[in-house]
């Protein structure tokens, strides 16, 4: 058996129930009416149990942006040209993208990984060059990736998580890939066996007529790969996915196996989360959902994961930006959990009812 298959078989780490119980009990003792901090209470309890700690801490956040191009761009499915993927990699490297600004404010570690752009880029300081190929193949003509390429991409995500495992208290996978809302729509529709018309949307900004064209492209792809719809999820990922999506799947699987809490971003990264959960049920125990993006497919995928996102800001940027925006909320939930006095400490009566 090869090492990929061995690794895939490694079980998802079980979440620590003792710390969940301890954190729940502490929340009942803090000087506030029980439940009055709403979802912040659930968040603190969740982070305490995922970190198996009585003092949950999110000082060290690791954000990785995975960038790649998509063969389906040959069908004209985005408001922006394919060259923007590589151009944005340069922008990430020079600190000018939204995620740079947010990561700096959070003092988060920010990795940028080129998993497969069409344009070859010069060596760029701060960008990890892991280019598998010049973008995926057009999934309207055949599988997007070979089996080997799909495994390579998954292992890039796995290894990125492992590269900083001792330090990471929260992991965020962001993505950049012109055309990847078509990819995510095709993949999520195939996994959920649902109508792509319920998921397809403007992405970077298509008008209604262009969204209709994007839908017919995705329908063609789903028809071409119909024989795989009853098959395994890895084959669907290989047929309809993208390099950056497969890398995020590998990162999420790795986090769940190693016991690293994950904050999930927008439509594309949630589709990767759904894929990871279908490959290895139980992964989602390690996920927290930051926001619901404006892309209509995001709600469908979140619902399929039974996810309750924290924010709804009509963001649709990707890069991990929605997740980064939610980190201060998570940190405040932890600060309240750790820093508030108990009724006993403050000598306040808890009331009888
Ligand atoms: O995160 C989201 O929900 C999201 C929604 C729409 C678009 N995006 C970003 O926009 C790009 C894909 O859009 P498109 O129209 O080129 O398929 C890609 O770089 C994503 O990061 C991201
Ligand atoms: C400019 C730009 C920045 C992005 N960041 C993530 N997706 C993006 C798409 C575009 C077009």
Q: Please, what is the CATH homologous superfamily of the largest domain?
A: Nicotinate-nucleotide-dimethylbenzimidazole phosphoribosyltransferase (CobT), large domain
* CA-CA gap between termini: 60 Å
**Topology order in helix (H) and strand (E) letters:** HHHEHHEEHEHHHHEHEHHH
- The name CATH uses for the topology of the largest domain is Rossmann fold
Structural class: alpha/beta
Bound molecules: nicotinate mononucleotide, 5,6-dimethylbenzimidazole
Shape: globular
According to DSSP, the number of beta strands is 6
Proportion of residues in extended strands: 5-15%
CATH class of the largest domain: Alpha Beta
Helix count from the secondary structure assignment = 14
- Rounded to the nearest angstrom, the radius of gyration is 21 Å
Strand order within the widest sheet?
A: 3-2-1-4
Unreliable segments of 5+ consecutive residues: none
- Domain module count: 2
**Major beta sheet, specifics?**
4 strands, parallel
Oligomer category: single chain
Mean pLDDT: 97
What does this structure look like?
There is one protein chain. The protein has two domains: 13-55 and 337-352, 5,6-Dimethylbenzimidazole Phosphoribosyltransferase, Chain: A, domain 1 (Orthogonal Bundle); 61-332, 3-Layer(aba) Sandwich (Rossmann fold), CATH 3.40.50.10210. 48% of the residues lie in helices and 9% in strands. It contains 14 helices and six strands. The chain has helices at residues 3-9, 17-29, 39-51, 83-94, 98-106, 147-163, 180-192, 208-224, 233-240, 243-258, 267-279, 296-304, 321-339, 343-346, and strands at 61-68, 109-116, 127-129, 170-176, 262-264, 287-289. Strands 3-2-1-4 form a four-stranded parallel β-sheet, sandwiched between helices. It has a two-stranded parallel ribbon with strand order 5-6. Helix 2 (17-29) packs antiparallel against helix 3 (39-51). It is globular, with a radius of gyration of 21 Å. The N and C termini lie far apart (60 Å). Bound molecules: nicotinate mononucleotide (NCN) and 5,6-dimethylbenzimidazole.
């Amino acid at each position: 058996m090869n090492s990929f298959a061995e690794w895939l078989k490694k079980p998802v780490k079980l979440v620590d129930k003792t710390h969940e119980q301890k954190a729940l009990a502490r929340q009942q003792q803090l000087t506030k009416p029980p439940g009055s901090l709403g979802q912040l209470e659930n968040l603190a309890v969740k982070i305490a149990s995922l970190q198996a700690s009585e003092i949950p801490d999110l000082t060290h956040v690791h954000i990785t942006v995975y960038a790649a191009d998509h063969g389906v761009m040959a069908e004209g499915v985005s408001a922006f040209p394919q060259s923007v993927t590589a151009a944005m990699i340069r922008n990430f490297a020079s600190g000018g993208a939204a995620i740079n600004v947010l990561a700096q404010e959070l003092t988060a570690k920010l990795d940028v990984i080129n998993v497969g752009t069409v344009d070859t880029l010069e060596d760029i300081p701060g960008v990890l060059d892991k280019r598998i190929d010049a973008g995926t193949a057009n999934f309207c003509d055949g599988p997007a990736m070979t089996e080997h390429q799909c495994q390579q991409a998954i292992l890039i995500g796995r290894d990125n998580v492992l590269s900083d495992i001792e330090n990471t208290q929260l992991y965020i996978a962001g993505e950049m890939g012109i055309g990847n809302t078509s990819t995510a729509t095709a993949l999520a529709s195939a996994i959920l066996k649902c109508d792509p018309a319920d998921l397809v949307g403007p992405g970077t900004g298509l008008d209604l007529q262009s969204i209709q064209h994007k839908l017919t492209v995705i329908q063609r792809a789903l028809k071409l790969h119909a024989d795989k719809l009853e098959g395994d999820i890895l084959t669907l990922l290989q047929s309809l996915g993208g390099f950056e999506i497969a890398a995020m799947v590998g990162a999420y699987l790795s986090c769940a196996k190693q016991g690293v809490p994950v904050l999930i971003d927008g439509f594309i990264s949630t589709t990767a989360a759904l894929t990871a959960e279908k490959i290895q049920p139980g992964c989602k125990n390690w996920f927290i959902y930051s926001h619901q993006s404006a892309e209509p497919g995001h709600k469908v995928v979140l619902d399929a994961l039974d996810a309750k996102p924290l924010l709804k800001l009509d963001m649709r940027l990707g890069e991990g930006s929605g997740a980064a925006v939610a980190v201060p909320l998570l940190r405040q939930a932890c600060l309240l959990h750790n820093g508030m006095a108990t009724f006993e400490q403050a000598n306040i009566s808890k009331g009888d009812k």
